[in-house]
Design a protein that fits this description.
The chain is of the alpha+beta class. Helix content is 40%, strand content 12%.
Length: 181
């Protein structure tokens, strides 16, 4: 859909590195998980080969161990390649489920709005770029629902996950994608 050329890293996903349950996928990185060195070297090789001007990566707010490992590796590589621009996307639908990850003052689940996020951006000194994904809501839902091994653990069911993608008639609840500088 994005017309992106993939680069296969031949790196095993978390279940193949000793994370034996869905719950373990969203906890701290296990001591025996030694993927970081190989991941960092793989990313370093791609950066040297491709010479990107921009790298997009997850911010890891969903706490998935694979996303944590990517975040950790990119922190190392930012020092090595400081001329590249790095942007994080704020993992969805995790933000909708846990909006407190971005703000000091709690707000109600599913009540994140563009106005609230703009205020947060100014208060925290963190620059956020906000995209309203209403036009591609169904595609985003289908992509999230494809992770069958995680949907039930994270959201209870596909139906409950769908609730994060259902904009209200008033337009208050919209599914947003956010990129943080």
């Amino acid at each position: 859909l994005l017309d992106i050329v993939p680069h296969w890293g031949d790196l095993p996903e978390a279940p193949h590195r000793g994370y034996d349950s869905a719950k373990e996928l969203f906890q701290d990185i296990k001591k025996q998980d030694k993927i970081a060195e190989k991941l960092t070297k793989t990313l370093e090789n791609w950066i040297e080969k491709i010479q990107p001007q921009l790298i997009l990566s997850p911010k890891g707010i969903g706490n998935h161990v694979d996303h944590q490992q990517v975040c950790n590796s990119l922190e190392i590589l930012r020092q090595q390649f400081p001329k590249i621009k790095y942007l994080n996307w704020i993992d969805q639908p995790y933000l909708m489920r846990n909006p407190d990850c971005l703000i000091e003052k709690p707000c109600k689940r599913n009540e994140i709005s563009i106005e609230i996020l703009n205020r947060i951006s100014g208060e925290n000194g963190q620059k956020l770029t906000i995209f309203n994904l209403k036009s591609v809501n169904m595609l985003k839902f289908q992509a999230c629902a494809a992770y069958e091994s995680q949907v039930n653990f994270q959201f209870g069911s596909v139906e409950k996950l769908a609730g994060y993608f259902d904009p209200s008639d008033e337009g208050e609840k919209v599914f947003l994608e956010i990129i943080a500088l």
